[in-house]
Amino acid sequence: MKTLHACAVCGFEGLEEPLFVDGEYLNTFEICPCCGFEFGFSEDHDVVHGFITIPEEFLEVAFQLYRKKWIEAGMKIFDPEAIPESKRKHDVLKFDVLVKQLQNLKLDLSNFDINGFEDFE
Ligand SMILES: [Zn+2]
């Protein structure tokens, strides 16, 4: 079986290419089947952060902005067929699944300025 890589935005483990090799961002142009982030494109075009192309050291900012937008818009799954049915309700990711995925990314959920995360201490 092929090793799949976790999406840096939503944490879903479904990417065929790693996002970083030796600390360098790869611009794979792979689209996460869960959150729809396109690596190498979305960080510059699908979020507003004040840069034309975001400097690599600020990538996390773009990921966070997209994450916030995606979660607050209702966590609609980009390609529902690619996500196990147990993790979603029709074409929406289940919240507890999302929380687990984000925890696997080692994100500090108590520091999220995202609706729905107010109760994480
Ligand atoms: Zn994703």
Question: Could you give a short description of this structure?
Answer:
By secondary structure, the chain is an alpha+beta fold. The chain has helices spanning 42-45, 59-72, 95-104; strands at residues 5-6, 13-15, 20-21, 24-25, 88-89, 92-93. Residues 7, 9-10, 12, 32, 34-35, 37 line the site of zinc ion.
Give me the secondary-structure topology.
Elements (H helix, E strand, L loop, with lengths): L4 E2 L6 E3 L4 E2 L2 E2 L16 H4 L13 H14 L15 E2 L2 E2 L1 H10 L17
Antiparallel strand pairs: 1-2, 3-4, 5-6
The site of zinc ion has 8 residues, from loops.
- Overall shape: it is globular
Largest sheet properties: 2 strands, antiparallel
Radius of gyration: 14 Å
Beta-strand percent range: 5-15%
Q: Which segments are poorly predicted (pLDDT under 50) over 5 or more consecutive residues?
A: none
Average pLDDT level: 95
Ligand catalogue: zinc ion
Portion of residues in helices?
A: 10-25%
Got a strand count?
Answer: 6
The N- and C-terminal alpha carbons lie at a distance of 38 Å
Tally of separate helices: 3
Provide the succession of SSEs: EEEEHHEEH
Structural class, judged by helices and strands?
alpha+beta
Arrangement of strands in the largest sheet = 1-2
